[in-house]
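Why predict the complex rather than its parts? Because the way molecules touch one another can change local conformation, and only a joint prediction can capture that. The input here totals 402 residues.
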Amino acid sequence: MRIREILATDSHKTIEIEIDTSKGTVRSSVPIGTSKGKYEVKYLPTQDAIFKFNQLKRHFTNDDFENQEDVDSLIRIIDKSEDLHELGGNLAIGISSAFLKAFAQEAGMEVYEYLLAKQKIKPVIPRPICNIIGGGKHAGRIDIQEFHFIPVHQRTFAESVMKIANAYRTEGKKLKKDDPTFTFAKNVEAAWTSNLTFEEILNLMAKVANENLLKMGLDFAASSLWDGNRYYVYRYANDMLNTHDQLDMIKELMRNYPVIYVEDPFHEDDFESFSVLSHEVTGRLICGDDLYTTNIKRLDVGKSYASTNAAIVKPNQVGTITDTIKFVEAAKHSKMITVMSHRSSDTEDTLISHLAVGLGCDYIKLGISGDRTAKINEMIRIEEKILSSSRLNLNSEIRIRR
Ligand code: PEP
Ligand code: MG
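Output of the joint prediction:
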């Protein structure tokens, strides 16, 4: 078992863990968030994580682990803090995911197959939610962090992403025409960046969505807009909205645009406003990301308020694969839609594609170009393998549960 410092997609340093198995070597690298939730596990600087790893390595190499739970409970024994600040959430998820890959390799399976067998669930291919235009903390002069395209009817994942890729390229051409400053520049998630206004972008996105039979999603990442007191600050739009105005604005744009998915419309401590929005709109997905941070206790609070009908799943927010699985199970148990997601600063690691299928998630949130294609292309390969074994239960109906 070894560790190294490598580069993440936005040139931040991150770590990669390698484990030798009887059948070869597996490798797991760790993504990083830019608009991180306050309740995520805490990362150590990479050199500190490497130091810690070398101190603790013997515990992980001497032990003969039977399964993932054994590995993850050792992580939780070594660091009893909820936010894993002693061991480092980055080191924890690196070790935990490398072991998942090692167990699958020892079993002679791909990771998604190993998980499906463990979970005793049938394969369902998730639908993509792809980031097309971006702003907020992900760079670009728009206050809203992500504008997505989402397929409504999915025959195959491959067909959906080809359609979205076509719409993404069309969007680029339209931006070139409408925004004189546009240079085909991309942000950290390889989404277009633009100087058009929020409304201009919504109009452009809606037009391309309608032409391509797609729907739209938005990630407000509203904790990044919240001033910590009373207002959501839209600095590029030169506007400030209180919670009531924010609610009205979101309801209005859902009336006027084909928006079927809204992520983090309010800041991460406002379970009540999420709940009000969820009760006032129907047939849309209201999703919690920073609200939950893949943490089952926060999901329980969300459930008690009926805050959302969807939840983002990011393994590195919680630090272990076992906790990630528990979160997905709990969300599904409450009939919530699950959305496996990449991070803004990520790596070429395709683990989340395997987790999305292996844990039976309804959606997977990804970028659509540049370094982001690694995970998309792995999804295409997984789907092809599943289709050829003809055990596919295509996720073809819209399942928006409330
Ligand atoms: C997000 O907020 O959904 C996201 C992917 O961004 P980050 O990784 O910066 O949290
Ligand atoms: Mg988000």
